[in-house]
Amino acid sequence: MNKDKKKIFIIDTSAILSGKPLSFGNAELITTINIEQEIKPGGRDYLNYIYLKEKCLILKTPSKDSLKKIKETIEKTGDIDRLSIFDTEILAIAFDENKQKDVEVAILTDDYSIQNVATYLKIKFNSINQNGIIKKFKWISRCRGCGKKFKDNISICPICGSDTKKIVIKKEEIDE
Ligand SMILES: [Zn+2]
C-alpha cells in the first residue's frame, strides 16, 4: 500500500526570526507554546509570528517524558550549554510527534546543536536557508481606498488619503 504520510514540521525561533514565510502545503507546522516569550510585540519579527500563527502555526507543550529524554540526551552530546529552554522544548515536541505512525516529522532549524541532537535521536531536520520551501517575501503597505501598494511603511495613502494596511507579498509583486 502506498499511503501518503502526513508531514509535520517543527519550527524553532530562528525559523520565525528568519523573516521568511514558510510555505507548507498541507503540512502541519508546530512550535512550542512558550515561543511567544522570545518574540517581543511590535516590529517585524512579531508580524512574522502573527502571520504564521494566523495561517497555520500550532502551539504545543512537550510531554514531560520527552523533555526528560531530551535533557538526558543533550548532556550526553554536550549540547546542553548551547541550547535554550525553547530549543529543548522544540526537540521534545519533535520527539513526541515522531512517535506517531504514518507521519513524517522534520525540525526546521539552522541551529547546529539542534541538528546535532536531532541526528542523535534519529529525527529528521531541514535547514531553513537551504530548503526549497522558503519563498521570498516582504511586508508592505496597501491602501484600503485605492489599493495602491507601497514599499515603505506608510500609514496614510499619499494618493487618496485613506488608511493603509500591512500585507505580505512576494517580492516581485511590489509595484513601487
Ligand atoms: Zn489610496
Structure write-up:
This protein is α/β, with parallel strands linked by helices and 176 residues long. It has two domains: 6-126, Rossmann fold (3-Layer(aba) Sandwich), CATH 3.40.50; 137-173, Single Sheet (Rubrerythrin, domain 2). The chain has five helices and eight strands. It has helices spanning 13-17, 43-55, 64-77, 85-97, 112-120, and strands at 6-11, 28-32, 57-60, 103-108, 124-126, 137-143, 149-150, 164-170. The strands form two sheets. Strands 3-2-1-4-5 form a five-stranded parallel beta sheet. It has a three-stranded antiparallel beta sheet with strand order 7-6-8, with no helix packed on it. A hairpin with a 5-residue loop joins strand 6 and strand 7. Helix 3 (64-77) crosses helix 4 (85-97). The longest helix has 14 residues, at 64-77. It is elongated and about 60 Å long. Zinc ion binds at residues 143, 145-146, 148, 157, 159-160, 162.
State the CATH class of the largest domain.
Alpha Beta
Alpha-beta content class: alpha/beta
**DSSP, total strands:** 8
CATH architecture of the largest domain: 3-Layer(aba) Sandwich
**Tally of discrete structural domains:** 2
Helix content: 25-40%
Q: Give, in order, the helices and strands.
A: EHEHEHHEHEEEE
**Shape type:** elongated
What value does the Rg take, in angstroms? 19 Å
Which regions contain 5 or more consecutive residues with pLDDT less than 50?
131-136, 172-176
User: What is the makeup of the main sheet?
Assistant: 5 strands, parallel
